[in-house]
Write a structure and sequence with these properties.
- By secondary structure, this protein is α/β, with parallel strands linked by helices.
- It folds into three domains: 358 residues, Glycosidases (TIM Barrel); 59 residues, Oligo-1,6-glucosidase, Domain 2 (Oligo-1,6-glucosidase, domain 2, Alpha-Beta Complex); 76 residues, Sandwich (Immunoglobulin-like).
- It is built from eleven helices and 20 strands.
- The strands form five sheets. An eight-stranded parallel beta sheet has the order 11-10-9-8-5-2-1-12, with helices on one face.
- β14 and β15 form a beta hairpin.
- α9 runs parallel beside α11.
- The longest helix is centred in the middle third of the chain and has 18 residues.
- It is globular and about 80 Å long.
- It starts with 14 loop residues before the first strand and ends with a strand.
- It binds 1-O-alpha-D-glucopyranosyl-D-fructose and calcium ion.
Length: 532
């Protein structure tokens, strides 16, 4: 059993990320909705996922797909009502599932009433809710906007132009308008965000994926001490009322985020771009999303290299934080390119093999289980290159791939027009499909304590001059140990099995794998889990 903070269900949890716009449209308006998510809970559960992360589903002008919130406490009408969302929580719970909403604490939409009030000349409750300079002509070393408000000041942005930064104060101050983290304004912002969390937790939500969690306090340096303190206070307040609430941060530095009080963080590396000699695992950069030739991600048979550079970067972080929380892998998300079609079906099978057997709680992005493809399409709602990973879920071979009954031109985004585009119905009927591979991996994961999110990882083989990666996972109580090995490359590679695994057998594999005589030999593009 895990000794990690957070509720016990996290130990063998598997998350499914839903971009609500594109999952299932139940009222024919061309856009996914909450009743659509409820409709497919059994599907998600059947896949082996028992928790959801839903991208922001709150009222918004949708200039950044809902990451520009105009009312934190109201479901966007296009997705349904607050009552629908509360029904989703209940339906999920009745299936033993949990639901995380997406909290965007660092900024709001420029249309949020707080910002409208803050923009006024007359002082009011929200004057200092955002970060304003003292004059419409005063810039600063952060993105800012001037000339848009009657208030004689410029304001700081957190992301796009539509997303003014909320005021959590400055860690170090060099201008008179900068407030401390202890200022009444910064405290009021923190309290307001705690109220948002309380609002949804009291209605049955299980926690939050927190957007740009490291962005709160400005001038906070690389170590983020004041941002960490702000979260300790906010999460502390929430947990005193909701001790089982779960928080996963978009931070990417678990030494900081777990200290801040998050249960989990994502393994994210914005520098990944498939460069040779990089420590890229999946080559995340959206610019390279369809560039197969120059793809040097680890799972690419032709383009990849040793797993070492990835491990050199990952392992120290993992070791330093493994007793504090969970450092999680994603198959992809709404900001990153899907693995298909850049990686082949086989390369992805090997890749999922690793991602679903590593420590941390895995996050599967909707559609990755059938190999939905990144598409080269024009931007929608501030998606730009990210839009290609946000297309409608492909349920079956019917109208709009079963996503919606709307006219195709009225869909949120076009469905993949390829007649061979994968879909759920077809893959459910094909025992050799990607869908069934994902199900098999997740079933294995759930059955074995050695594959739980807290089970220890030890590297067994990771040659500098090869493609092999072999590792042992050991359950927290030392009760079970399994060996996992993969070879994403094109030549056969082998390694000596540790003595206690020598008599093991393959529990699940893809490709040509031979276990015997104290050795494991892995053919091209192969993966195996060895156990008793
Ligand atoms: O993302 C923050 C972020 O840094 C990434 O968006 C990344 O820089 C970008 O997508 C390029 O790939 C979060 C959300 O996940 C994203 O969807 C939002 O647009 C952003 O915050 C602003 O809220
Ligand atoms: Ca709809």
């Amino acid at each position: 059993m895990a000794n990690l903070p957070g509720p016990e269900w996290l130990d063998d949890a598997v998350f499914y990320e839903i971009y609500p716009q594109s999952f299932l449209d139940t009222n024919g308006d061309g856009i996914g909705d909450i009743p659509g998510i409820i409709d497919r809970l059994d599907y998600v559960r059947g896949l082996g996922c028992d928790a959801l992360w839903i991208n922001p589903c709150f009222d918004s002008p949708f200039k950044d797909a809902g990451y520009d919130v105009s009312d934190y406490m109201k479901v966007a009408p296009r997705y349904g009502t607050n009552a629908d969302l509360e029904r989703l929580f209940r339906e999920a719970h009745s299936r033993g599932m949990h639901v995380l909403l997406d909290l965007v604490p660092g900024h709001t939409s420029e249309e949020h009433p707080w910002f409208r009030e803050s923009s006024r000349v007359e002082r009011n409750e929200y004057t200092d809710r955002y970060i304003w300079t003292d004059s419409a002509f005063e810039g600063y070393s952060m993105p800012f906007i001037g000339g848009e408000s009657e208030r004689d000041a410029t304001y700081i942005l957190n992301f796009f132009k539509c997303q003014p930064a909320l005021n959590y104060g400055f860690a170090t101050r060099d201008r008179k308008w900068q407030m401390s983290t202890d200022s009444p304004a910064a405290r009021a912002t923190r309290r307001a965000m705690v109220d948002v969390m309380r609002f949804w937790l009291s209605r049955g939500c299980d926690g939050f994926r927190v957007d740009m969690a490291n962005s709160l306090v400005k001038n906070d340096g690389d170590d983020k001490p004041e941002t960490i303190r702000a979260w300790q206070e906010m999460l502390g307040a929430v947990r005193s009322e909701y001790p089982d609430a779960v928080f996963v941060s978009e931070w990417g530095t678990p030494a900081q985020s777990l200290e801040a009080g998050f249960d989990m963080d994502f393994y994210l590396d914005w520098r990944w771009n498939g460069v040779p000699n990089g420590y890229n695992l999946l080559a995340r950069n959206v610019d390279g999303a369809l560039n197969v030739r120059d793809d040097h991600s680890y799972f690419s048979a032709h383009g990849g290299g040793s797993v070492r550079p990835f491990l050199d970067q990952y392992l120290p972080q993992y070791e330093a934080t493994r007793s504090k929380g969970r450092f999680c892998f994603i198959t992809c998300n709404h900001d990153t390119p899907r693995m298909a079609p850049r990686l082949t079906d086989r390369e992805r099978r090997v890749g999922y093999g690793m991602l679903f057997t590593m420590p941390g709680v895995p996050f599967l992005y909707y559609g990755d289980e059938i190999g939905m493809r990144y598409r080269d399409i024009s931007t929608k709602e501030g998606g730009y290159a990210r839009t290609g990973s946000r297309t409608p879920m492909q349920w079956d071979g019917g109208r709009n791939d079963g996503f919606s009954t709307a006219d195709p031109e009225n869909l949120y985004l076009p469905v993949d027009p390829d007649p061979h585009a994968p879909n759920v119905a077809e893959q459910q009927d094909d025992s050799d499909s990607m869908l069934h591979w994902v199900e098999s991996l997740l079933r294995l994961r759930r059955r074995h304590p050695a594959l739980s999110s807290s089970a220890r990882l030890d590297v067994v083989a990771a040659p500098e001059d090869g493609r092999l990666f072999a590792y042992r996972r050991t359950a927290a109580d030392e009760g079970e140990s399994l060996l996992v090995a993969l070879n994403p490359g094109l030549s056969e590679e082998g390694f000596d099995l540790p003595a206690d695994a020598a008599a093991g057998r393959s529990l699940l594999s893809v490709g040509d794998v031979r276990i015997g005589g104290g050795r494991a030999v892995l053919g091209p593009r192969s993966f195996v889990v060895v156990g008793k």
